[in-house]
Every structure is written in structure tokens, then in C-alpha cells.
Amino acid sequence: MDGPESVYALITGASKGLGKALAFELAGRKINVLLISLPGEGLSYLCEQIKDEFGVKSDYLEADLTKKEDISRITGWVSANYKVDILINNAGVGGTMVFDKSGIDYLENIINLNIRALVLLTRQLLPGLRTHHNAYVLNVSSMLSFSPIGYKTIYPASKSFIYYFSRGLNEELKGSGISVSVLHPGPMRTNVDVRKRIRRQGFFGKMGLCSVEEVAATAVRRMFKRKPVIVPGFGNYINWFLLKALPDSIKTSVLSNKVRREIQTQQ
Ligand SMILES: NC(=O)c1ccc[n+]([C@@H]2O[C@H](COP(=O)([O-])OP(=O)(O)OC[C@H]3O[C@@H](n4cnc5c(N)ncnc54)[C@H](OP(=O)(O)O)[C@@H]3O)[C@@H](O)[C@H]2O)c1
């Protein structure tokens, strides 16, 4: 077994929101953390704060995960300097847009970050994870992965991809000491866009609302129990049950109408 000082958890999208809460949750458990996010978002300050507050080791790398070369830069940096036994693929973006009006950059950003970066980073860090007796991958999906939704189209599809990818890989890695968990958060008040959307959606938007701290604590606890699917919060658990029970035609229509009204009130 590795000593507790020598191994790290790597968290993508760690500068704020859920990623930052996951970094704090792990550091609070005396786990060293490597933080990744876009340049200029205060990662160096956060890194120092974590070291001071929790007495663990921490380092950071600023990288754009939508760029293939940056993913290789991350894996090169890790293999040259660190041992990673926990990989948390948290960085992800969403959006609401009429598909006809969506630009190529908007679509590519979601696909490249939510799908390509998650797959490539996992693939490239897997040989390192395999060198540990126990290793963990936590992929952040969403409650919205459980239904197709018009006007969001690409986001729930990308999160559904994460669900299938994680379940498949977890099965493939059985017996290897590496487990792959997929986390399905409901709404959390993180960035400005999400806050506005939660407010606009009223009661519906607040169903299953949790703080990032609650979600991070549940996610980490269940990741260590090697749970393949993690749905945090009682409200989300009920929503999950409903979404699984309802036929696609009904839930897609209800959720898409809700989002369409949200777009119309914005115009
Ligand atoms: N908030 C919700 O209600 C909600 C619900 C369900 C699921 N989720 C999922 O939870 C995860 C975290 O969401 P959040 O709301 O905490 O997001 P957030 O507050 O917007 O934070 C996103 C993080 O990802 C980083 N990031 C964005 N684009 C990146 C890129 N191209 N390369 C590297 N890093 C990048 C951001 O870095 P910078 O700070 O540098 O921009 C930031 O650290 C996402 O996967 C999201 O889909 C969120």
C-alpha cells in the first residue's frame, strides 16, 4: 500500500462550485489534492488555502480540457510528478438553446468538455491508477441524464453518455481494485447561469436542490464504498425514481415544455 503522503486525488473543474467542494471534502479527509481548471481562476490561491487549512499537499495546473494537447499536458505533468489514486472528472458545462440557433463552438465546447475530456483523461490516467491496490474514479453526470430534453438536447445526452461510460468501465474493471462511480447531482446553486435558472424555474427548479457541500460529502463517502451510481439528496432520489418510472415520451414532453417556457420568458 502507498503511504498516505505520497498519493493524490486529481479533480477537474476544481476552482469553484462542486469541484471546489469535492477538493475541500477530500482535503478534510487528509487526502492530497491536484486541482485543474481554466487559467486565471485563482487556483494558486485555492491551493495555498487548502494546504494551510487542512495540512495536506496540493498542487494545481491551469489547462483547457476542451483541448486535446492540454489533456496530454495534464497527464504528462501527473506522470512526471505524482501518483494519483483518485480521479474526479467534475468539469462540465451545460446550456439551454434552440438547436437550430446553436453555434458550432457552443456544441463543441459541451461535447469536448463533458465527453471527450472525461474519456481521454480517464484513459490516460488509468495505467497510473492500476498501480494502486485501491483506486477510484468519480464521474460527474446529472439528474438530467435520465431524460432526453428539447432545447437542452446536447447536455442531457452528454450526461447520459457519462452514465453509460461509467457503468461499462466499472464492469470492465471489476477485480482490478479500481471502481468507477457516476454521480447524478440535481440542482446546486453554483455559477450565475445555474442560479438564474433555478430562480426562474420556481418550485420545479428547487426540487432536489442541495448545497455543493452536501453533494460533495455524499459523493466522496459513497465513492469510497464503491457505489456504482450515486444520487445525492432525498429529493433527487424521489426524482430519480419518478424519472425511471415514467415513459420517455411523457417525461421528455413535460421537461421540454418546461424548458421552452423558460426560454420564452427570457426573450
Ligand atoms: N450546478 C448544477 O446545478 C449542476 C447540476 C447537475 C450536474 N452538474 C454538474 O456538476 C459539475 C460541476 O458543475 P458546477 O455547477 O459546479 O460548475 P461551475 O461552478 O461552472 O464550475 C465548473 C468548473 O469547471 C471548470 N471548467 C469549465 N470549463 C473548463 C475547461 N474547458 N477546462 C478546464 N476546466 C473547465 C471551471 O473552471 P474555471 O473556473 O476556470 O472556469 C470550473 O472550475 C459539472 O459537470 C456539471 O455539469 C451541475
Question: What would you say this structure looks like, in words?
Answer:
- With 267 residues, this protein is α/β, with parallel strands linked by helices.
- It has a single domain, classed as 3-Layer(aba) Sandwich (Rossmann fold).
- Helices cover 53% and strands 14% of the residues.
- The chain contains ten helices and seven strands.
- A seven-stranded parallel sheet has the order 3-2-1-4-5-6-7, with helices on both faces.
- Strand 1, helix 1 and strand 2 form a beta-alpha-beta unit.
- Helix 1 packs across helix 8 and helix 4 runs parallel beside helix 5.
- The longest helix is centred in the middle third of the chain and has 26 residues.
- The protein is globular, with a radius of gyration of 18 Å.
- The site of NADP nicotinamide-adenine-dinucleotide phosphate has 27 residues, from helix 1.
